[in-house]
Design a protein that fits this description.
The complex is a heterodimer of chains A (115) and B (118).
Chain A: E1 3-5, E2 10-14, E3 19-21, E4 24-26, E5 32-38, E6 44-49, E7 56-58, E8 64-68, E9 73-78, E10 87-94, E11 103-105, E12 109-114
Parallel strand pairs in A: 2-12
Antiparallel strand pairs in A: 1-4, 3-9, 5-6, 5-10, 7-8, 8-9, 10-11, 10-12
Chain B: E1 4-7, E2 10-13, E3 19-25, E4 32-38, E5 44-51, E6 57-58, E7 67-73, E8 76-81, E9 90-97, E10 108-109, E11 113-117
Parallel strand pairs in B: 2-11
Antiparallel strand pairs in B: 1-3, 3-8, 4-5, 4-9, 5-6, 7-8, 9-10, 9-11
The chains are: A mainly beta (115), B mainly beta (118).
Chain lengths: 115, 118
Amino acid sequence: AQSVTQLGSHVSVSEGALVLLRCNYSSSVPPYLFWYVQYPNQGLQLLLKYTSAATLVKGINGFEAEFKKSETSFHLTKPSAHMSDAAEYFCAVTKGGTSYDKVIFGPGTSLSVIP
Amino acid sequence: GAVVSQHPSRVICKSGTSVKIECRSLDFQATTMFWYRQFPKQSLMLMATSNEGSKATYEQGVEKDKFLINHASLTLSTLTVTSAHPEDSSFYICSARAGGLPANTEAFFGQGTRLTVV
């Protein structure tokens, strides 16, 4: 069964520092991976998704993620953290070959940004 | 991105009553909708997947008679929590995907509903 793990339930960085949120997947080929962000008491917003067209994926708000098949990873990064980046981040994988199939979420990583 | 509207955003009900939560896709046809439950500081737990015009597929451990899901049209799905009890208090989130597309098609999420059963 496909699943994702996120190392580190909580990450704290200083404002302006690099953000690195880890995601590893276990899946049969091919994996379809997503990063979502959730602000308190709200739904989820898509940051970026892996489309197989490129291993380095750029998303919104300056985030990007690199798909590394050899490491089964899809880590999320941002060069310089902003206070507004404080939120919950979820890596997700879709199971199956079409958009009818369900999306499974990792446990999430809470990002805190210290002024 | 596409818009999914979930209503109500917050509801308080008495134990033993039923509560209906609506999820609407406003600008696309949501062939498939998903209902999640989220406990504080935890991830989203998939409850069920519903395809328009079909019975919902429930995840293991989810009581289908308690959490009634109806997906009668391509723009509306409802989740009814029947005979609610305090342990049903949670944050419920719906999401929708347009069907028949590649697997990397993203799901769009509603704003969530905070259910409190007293």
